[in-house]
Amino acid sequence: MRIEGKICIVTGAASGIGRALARRFRAEGAKGIAIADLQQAPLKAVADEIGALAVVTDVAKEAEIQRLVARTEAELGPIDVFCSNAGIARIGGEEAPDADWQLNWDIHVMAHVYAARAVVPKMLARGGGYLVNTASAAGLLTHAYSASYSATKHAAVAFAEYLSIAHGDEGLKVSVLCPQAVRTAMTEGREHGVASADGMIEPEELADCVIETMDRETFLILPHPEVLEYMRRKTADYDRWLAGMRRFAKKYQPV
Fold first, then answer.
1. Is 149 considered catalytic here?
2. Which of these, 100, 117, 14, lies nearest to 57 by C-alpha position?
3. For the chain, where are the alpha helices, taking DSSP H only?
4. Sign of the dihedral defined by the CA atoms of residues 58, 62, 65, 70, in that order
5. Residues 18, 37 contacting (CB under 8 angstroms)
6. Is the entire prediction scored with pTM above 0.90?
7. What residues make up the domain containing 225?
8. pLDDT at 185 > cutoff 80
9. Considering only CA atoms, which of 123, 24, 140, 1 is closest in space to residue 10?
């Protein structure tokens, strides 16, 4: 799918990956862009910069995603592309507080579910549309220091797979974005962490990869191409991969 002439929504768009995607969609000639985030002032700044509709939204609440979709449809038109991109990061294992687990679940999984409920039926009625769901390389591999992040990003990939299987023959295109380290507020101070072993890319580089993948309409968006080889190694010999990850985790142990 080409972005030119399309109506797009991007969540988590006040900064980082979401902001880079919104800017790139404008550069690609999107007909209309709605951007969403909880950070009101930076969201407005991005909207003013690119001429987008800004809607302050808590993606963990279904009613707010429904409101985002309704405003976009009313002010811009039928939605062609929904980029469900908002995310958080909390370090910790099984001992992490229930609140951290729940917040990860709500933002990394249920936000995608709420978006699909809000737009997929209408997309299918019009003959198709495109969902771009941000997960992480951790959703294909794992995160060495965050159990809640790993588990919910795996679930995000699984839900995207389900959507493609369930609706791919009806015209719905689905891609899942699975980067390693991207230079954003989330990765600040973690330039030498395990996720950045293959290099930390700029959000603009990631946006280039998203556009190229959407043009091809393929499922995996891999700004770090090494991830595909890591997946192959994982499935070829799971125990060897786990042993390697244990060594990797010790080498890059956070201080």
1. yes
2. 14
3. 16-27, 40-50, 62-75, 98-105, 111-125, 147-167, 203-216, 226-236, 238-251
4. negative
5. yes
6. yes
7. 7-251
8. no
9. 24
Does a structural domain hold residue 35? Answer: yes
Task: Enter the tokens of residue 23.
Answer: 């800017």
Angle at 33 (CA atoms; ends 28, 35), nearest 5 degrees: 125
**pLDDT, tens digit, 9 for 90 and up, residues 45-95:** 999 999 999 999 999 999 999 999 999 999 999 999 999 999 998 889 999
Catalytic option among 130, 145, 149, 230: 149
CATH assignment of the domain containing 85: 3.40.50.720
Number of domains in the chain: 1
Determine the Cα–Cα distance for residues 202 and 236; give it in Å rounded to an integer: 31
Name the percent of the chain in helix, strand, coil, to the closest 5. Answer: 55, 15, 30
Residue type, 214: M
Strand duo 7-11 + 81-84: pairing = parallel
| Residue 1 within any structural domain of the chain | no
Beta carbons of 36 and 44 less than 8 angstroms apart: no
Any domain includes 2: no
Judged against a pLDDT cut of 60, whether residue 194 lies above it is answered with no
Residue 92 DSSP code:
B
Of 69-83, 97-111, 240-254, least confident by mean pLDDT is 240-254
